[in-house]
């Protein structure tokens, strides 16, 4: 009887060792694979994202037969200098200085929430790029943890210029409209290289909620926000703030 009990315990320990061995191997493979993908995307055009996949699946499951996803990659040097600085002015004014996380903005958001105010976002452009590209829309500790992981990877592997280039190609500017090229064509019938400061500000103004806020029929709120973005752009020093001349 004793020998049988020893054999059972030994078998359990062996099974646990095998589970542990495969668990860390799978975890290591996932980490190495994610690093390889991020390194690859430093060089190749990005034509699809996790958010695009989620929206496409949602349209299929909801029977939205008229839904059409629009996105076309455009290099940063073919985009008006006004758009990147408008995005930075609207979303992340410390973008050139931080390493993926705006610590002060996070602290301010937490303090405001502790004072009873609605919890507001403090995501940087790098965090938004990581989320849009690799993850899904929603709130959970798992998603936030993965977002932080990919944010660190992107900041380590990409230049700031590359982060902006990918962000403006995957950001959602309207339902099914992703990236500067698709948005420029849909709303202004022009190439992204021809965008004016006002048009760039309007695109940046809808980013908090691009399915409710409209570029083509801007509400009073969008108009005010676009004007604020233009003022912030000038105060930052215009495209020169991002090293653009």
Topology:
Elements: H1 2-40, H2 50-61, E1 70-71, H3 82-91, H4 103-114, H5 125-134, H6 141-157, H7 160-170, E2 172-174, E3 177-178, H8 179-188, H9 197-205, H10 220-236
Parallel strand pairs: 1-3
Antiparallel strand pairs: 2-3
Helix pairs in contact: 1-6, 3-9, 3-10, 5-6, 5-7, 9-10
Polypeptide structure, described:
This protein is mostly helical and 245 residues long. It folds into 2 domains: 1-40; 48-242, Biosynthetic peptidoglycan transglycosylase-like (Penicillin binding protein transpeptidase fold, Orthogonal Bundle), CATH 1.10.3810.10. It is 60% helix and 3% strand. It has 10 helices and 3 strands; from the N terminus they run H-H-E-H-H-H-H-H-E-E-H-H-H. The chain has helices at 2-40, 50-61, 82-91, 103-114, 125-134, 141-157, 160-170, 179-188, 197-205, 220-236; strands spanning 70-71, 172-174, 177-178. The chain has a 3-stranded mixed beta sheet with strand order 1-3-2. Strand 2 (172-174) and strand 3 form a beta hairpin. The chain is globular, with a radius of gyration of 22 Å. The mean pLDDT is 89.
Defining key terms:
single chain, 245 residues, three-stranded mixed sheet, Penicillin binding protein transpeptidase fold, mainly alpha, 3 strands
Please summarize what this structure is.
Helices cover 60% and strands 3% of the residues. By secondary structure, the protein is mainly α. Strands 1-3-2 form a three-stranded mixed β-sheet.
